[in-house]
Each structure stands twice: as C-alpha cells, then as structure tokens.
Design brief:
This protein is an alpha+beta fold. It contains four helices and eight strands. The strands form two sheets. A six-stranded mixed β-sheet has the order 1-2-3-4-5-6, with helices on both faces. Strand 2 and strand 3 (110-117) form a beta hairpin. The termini are close together.
Length: 239
C-alpha cells in the first residue's frame, strides 16, 4: 500500500491522523511478536499530550497527621513561609506527544529499540522539537537504537536532521532543505574506544511504498519493520 496523506481529504474523511498513530504502534507490536527472538518483547506507548491533563498531583488523606493549632490544646506548630520566587512569568508547559513502540530484552530488563512515530505536536514549536530531539539523543547515548517515522505532511521540519545537528553531524543524502517526510533507523555502536553513529534513512513520498527499516537488537542482530503501515491502514478501512 502506498503512503497516504493522513492530514487531508480523502483520507481524513475516513480516519483521523491520531487514529493511525494509535493503531500503528499496536500493529507493529503484533507483527514483532512473530519476528523477535525468544527473550525479547515489544510494547506500545501512546501518550497524546494535548489530550491529557493532570487533575490533582497531591492529595490529603483523612488519616494523615495534621498540624496542631493553638486552639487544639497543644503547642503551636510553626508553618514555614517560603521566600518570594526569583522568577514569576506567565507561560505554558509544552504538551508532550508520544506514539512509540519499545523493544526490551526481557531476561535482562534492558530497553533495546525505540520506534518513534512523529506527531504534529512534535513538530509544532521549537521547544517541542527540541524536546523530541533531546529524548532521541538521550536514548542513543544509553545504547538504545532509535527509529523515527514521520508522515506528518502539514509541518515542514525534519527532526532527524535536527537530531544530527544536535549531535554535531549531518547526512549528505538529505539535501537542502531536508525532506519533511522520512523514516530512519539510528544507532550508536561502540568501535574500539569510540562510538560510531550509524543511520539508515529513507525519504518518504506520497503514493510510494513504505520502506523496510532495520530494528537493531544487538550489534549483529536486526529484525525488519516493513508491513505494519499497510496493515494499520487496512484495519482503519483506509483504501
């Protein structure tokens, strides 16, 4: 099945982009179940930040000990008064969207691969793009192979290119400007006393098939990520 534009008609008349982003990780996990060697497991993570609110972060238990007041018959308990803040500005905490699949080595309890599906919120503002890039860089630094898949058509940014700039590197094959639809697998593998950054990048194009990405479990062992997009579209009745 060729790549569709999930942000414009006619596809949006049948399913929204977030429906695909919710279905796709589950389909990736379903297919990996038949491909991962024994001892490896995969799990989806879906966290649409713009739709999640924290209602109460702390609460008071009925049986919790209370501060005694002077009229309780006991000695008064001093209440500490903090100083005035050094900064007080009106702002917002950016929402954090996450649509991903993580592959673990179940026997050792170690995460090996993170597959990140880029959402519109990840490409919205500089601070959100920085948060996404910083997360991917931190995973690579921990030895986690990272795959980034971006099918967001309305916003013209390439987070893979921004990740490389963050790491002080570049991909000559991207061109200028870099494509805003792409799929890439990255890993930071040890080589003697240094680390070698390796990437397998593909430019995506509407109407073209989705490429096969390598998901690296070890330095020598990889499994393919290929047909999950087609199956997710099929499950959502997207022709």
């Amino acid at each position: 099945m060729p790549l569709r534009d999930h942000f414009r008609p006619p596809v949006t008349l049948h399913a929204t982009w977030d429906a695909l982003h919710c279905m796709w990780p589950a389909e990736i996990v379903r297919q990996l179940r038949t491909r991962l060697p024994q001892g490896y497991v995969a799990a989806p993570t879906v966290h649409p930040g713009s739709q999640v609110e924290v209602d109460v972060a702390a609460y008071e238990r009925e049986d919790a000990p209370r501060l005694r007041r002077p009229d309780d018959g006991g000695s008064p308990t001093a209440v500490w008064a903090p100083p005035e803040p050094t900064v007080a500005v009106e702002t917002e905490v950016p929402d954090y969207d996450e649509y991903s699949v993580h592959i673990y080595d179940a026997e050792r309890g170690r995460r090996l691969v993170a597959i990140e599906l880029v959402s519109p919120g990840n490409k919205d503002r500089p601070e959100k793009r920085n948060a996404f890039v910083g997360k991917c860089a931190a995973l690579l630094r921990k030895g986690v192979a990272v795959s980034i898949v971006d099918v967001v058509t309305p916003r013209q940014f390439n987070l893979y290119a921004e990740l490389l700039r963050f790491l002080g590197q570049s991909d000559p094959g991207l061109g200028e400007p870099p494509p805003h639809l792409y799929a890439v697998s990255c890993r930071w593998r040890p080589q003697e006393k240094r680390r070698l950054l390796q990437t397998w990048s593909h430019t995506l194009a509407l109407g073209q098939p989705f490429p096969t990405l390598p998901l690296w479990l070890t330095l020598q062992l990889a499994v393919p990520l290929d047909q999950s997009y087609e199956q997710a579209c099929h499950d959502l009745w997207i022709a």
